[in-house]
């Protein structure tokens, strides 16, 4: 089934966006095999529109055009994570030439250094980075899970000591949105009360209810609802009842999109996928679904099948700095001796600048003496993630996603016995049986 929702055409700049007419609606393009078409409209006038291009007739996967203030993003999409306005090991120009349409800015770090006032003066994070496409900023809350020994959560907000100068800082929902308004991101995330996914008991329920209250405070605090999209974050830990309660409550709010939070924190994969699929079952079809903190290739493919549209993770860039290159058969450790005289590129089928220009032997030698090797591998890894998601999308549009999954798994694992049990079960739940 296919339908389109466009409340506003994509426009290349904020200025043009402001001139665009609210509520402009056009019919969807029907490219699916099933051939059914229906119209549905989005309420409200958020600076976002989601057009569903195709839905997989077997799984819950969908391919969409997500129109945001700076450009249209083809989903499913992987969003690379930048810190302090730059991606480690890659420039903005390179990111653009790899076809990246949206990346993440890190609010916690940017809010500390250089600070939101300076960035506002530079015409927001877009101007500061000189990045013309879309940006998503986090609330700053996630970093506090890793700084938990420094932080204290109250109803007012999260109190913590600055790791830069030791000053006491209170991050409230209002302050988080204020910083994100200064950064000018296309998508802002609500401040949520984050508990580690391995925590159990009453703290999980408390955090879930507080996240709902904080969502309302964030909605109220947003000074730019016509320019910046605020996403809610579904919490509830690994408890199906709590997650369902959070979904019921948050989906009553007319926010432009929803994130699935509180996962990918070391929980059992079996719990992980069940929470993901429960969430997508109850999220509105006409709004984007962002699964936070997911970036392993297998997880991406499975979670697209479970109905997620957007993903982010530091993994591909972090692992590149250790010399690990992502390939369709897993990963390739450039530092290993066996590559010292290997004149093939990392992946002979990869079209990235690293694979076009450099051999495994060159990267192996370079890794010993120069950080440029990390840079080359970072480019390759981001290209791998973006290319993987483009292939996933293409297969959904062409109605052959289940076949794509089978081929992908065969290439990733040497034998059927090595398929992760959780992935087999998760895929079976959406009617994909791996032979
Ligand atoms: Zn490559």
Automatic annotation (TrEMBL):
Zn(2+) binds at residues 350, 352, 355, 380. Its cofactor is Zn(2+). GO terms for cellular component: cytosol; mitochondrial outer membrane. GO terms for biological process: tRNA modification. It catalyses: guanosine(34) in tRNA + queuine = queuosine(34) in tRNA + guanine. It is a peripheral membrane protein. The keyword Manganese does not apply. HAMAP family: Q_tRNA_Tgt. This is Queuine tRNA-ribosyltransferase catalytic subunit 1. It comes from Menidia menidia (Atlantic silverside). The gene is QTRT1.
């Amino acid at each position: 089934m296919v339908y389109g929702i466009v409340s506003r055409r994509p426009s290349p700049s904020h200025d043009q966006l402001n001139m665009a007419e609210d509520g402009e609606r056009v019919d969807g393009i029907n490219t699916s095999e099933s051939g059914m078409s229906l119209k549905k409209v989005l309420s409200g006038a958020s600076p976002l529109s989601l057009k569903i291009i195709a839905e997989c007739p077997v799984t819950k996967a969908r391919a969409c055009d997500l129109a945001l203030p700076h450009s249209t993003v083809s989903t499913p999409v992987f969003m690379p994570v930048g810190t302090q306005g730059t991606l480690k090991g890659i420039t903005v120009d390179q990111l653009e030439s790899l076809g990246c349409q949206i990346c993440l800015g890190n609010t916690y770090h940017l809010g500390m250094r250089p600070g939101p006032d300076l960035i506002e003066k530079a015409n927001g994070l877009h101007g500061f980075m000189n990045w013309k496409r879309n940006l998503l900023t986090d609330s700053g809350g996630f970093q506090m899970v890793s700084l938990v020994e420094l932080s204290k959560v109250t109803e007012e907000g999260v109190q913590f000591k600055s790791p830069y100068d030791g000053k006491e800082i209170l991050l409230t929902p209002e302050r988080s949105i204020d910083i994100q308004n200064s950064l000018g991101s296309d998508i802002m995330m609500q401040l949520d009360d984050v508990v580690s996914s391995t925590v159990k008991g009453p703290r999980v329920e408390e955090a879930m209810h507080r996240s709902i209250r904080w969502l309302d405070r964030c909605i109220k605090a947003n000074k730019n609802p016509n320019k910046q999209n605020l996403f809610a974050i579904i919490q509830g830990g690994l408890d199906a009842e709590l997650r369902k309660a959070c979904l019921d409550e948050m989906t009553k709010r007319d926010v432009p999109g929803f994130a699935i939070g509180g996962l990918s924190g070391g929980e059992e994969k079996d719990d992980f996928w069940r929470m993901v699929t429960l969430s997508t079952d109850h999220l509105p079809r006409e709004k984007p679904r962002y699964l936070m903190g997911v970036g392993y290739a297998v997880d991406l493919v499975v979670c697209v099948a479970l109905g997620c549209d957007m993903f982010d993770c530091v993994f591909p860039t972090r692992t590149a700095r250790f010399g690990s290159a992502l390939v369709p058969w897993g990963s390739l450790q450039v530092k290993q001796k066996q590559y010292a005289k290997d004149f093939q590129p990392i992946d002979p089928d990869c079209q990235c600048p690293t694979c076009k220009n450099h051999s495994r032997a060159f990267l192996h030698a370079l890794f010993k003496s120069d950080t440029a090797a990390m840079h080359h591998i970072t480019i390759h890894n981001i290209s791998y993630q973006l290319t993987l998601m483009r292939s996933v999308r293409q297969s959904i549009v062409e109605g052959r996603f289940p076949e794509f999954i089978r081929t992908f798994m065969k290439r990733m694992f040497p034998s059927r016995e090595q398929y992760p049990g959780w992935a087999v079960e998760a895929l079976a739940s959406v009617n994909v049986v791996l032979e």
